[in-house]
Amino acid sequence: MLETNFGAPSGKEHGLHDKITAARHDGKPLSDALQKKMRKLVTIRNKLVHERDFNSIPDRDEFAASFEAVEKELQGMLPKDSACVIC
Q1: 16-35 pLDDT, tens per residue?
Q2: Nearest C-alpha neighbor of 31 from the set 2, 66, 70, 4
Q3: Across the strands, what pairs with 14?
């Protein structure tokens, strides 16, 4: 099983919720608050991708703000010398 910087499994056999559960920082799971924010974003993403009748983000401003907050928190966990390709 390949791992990312946060220890989450990679590959299509693992869903995003599984990856959030498995992710670790300094050997510990991500905080419950961070996991909750990430799960909310992933649930909306999954609906957009998989549900034919779900065609828009219910509260786009709140979604964007939540995404930015999660991104900032995760970036703060990366080592200073990280070569993260999506940052």
Answers
A1: 999 999 999 989 999 999 99
A2: 70
A3: none
